[in-house]
Amino acid sequence: MKKLIVASLAAVVFSTAHAQSVVPPPPTPVPVPRPPSPEPGSLEMKPSGIPGKAEAKRNATMTVTIQSIDVPGRTLTVRGQGGRSQTVKLGPEVTRLKEFSVGDTIRVDYEQGLALEFQPPGSPTVLPESGTTAGRTGRDQLPGSTASSGIQATVTITAIDTEKRLVSFQGEGGKVYQVKASPMIRLEKLKVGDRLLATYVETVAIRLQKTPRKK
Fold this sequence. Notes:
Layout: H1 5-13, E1 44-47, E2 53-70, E3 75-79, E4 85-89, E5 105-119, E6 129-136, E7 144-161, E8 166-170, E9 176-181, E10 195-209
Parallel strand pairs: 1-9
Antiparallel strand pairs: 1-2, 2-3, 2-5, 3-4, 5-10, 6-7, 7-8, 7-10, 8-9
């Protein structure tokens, strides 16, 4: 399947925007940008409606603006966050280049989702497992693509701050991550050493936004 131009742009324009997330980022099916990571503990876990399971979501949007385009030369110059400009050389696999114009913007909608589920003593350890899916917009739509990826593994609680309602847990490789428990989560039921099944999913939708022309 041929790659769309937006995927190539994402890999270059946002290459400096990558930052550590509150959970290990899963492998993605296409190069995608990342918004700035939230502060440790800012991802708030809430009851999922299933006993022993909590969930959290975070959304962000990023954009870049096309400054110049050279269709025969297959190059594109864009301006990203902070006013930084970059020129991208596009490979032959990039299609629908003629649909882009100076002033158009490329929008990236980013969603993170985390689920933590209590694992009773004796439950088998789940080693990190990942999966990916990808798709793109139809011919009757503006160029764009969507990529989803996720990872699931057993993690262990290493600290609980009941006053600040912060829970720290350790994943594969020994790295520690932190989330915040909403007032609806009963922290007294958790203790250091408890194991949780962590499921992390990220979805990125990348699309061209045509700018209305001035009359």
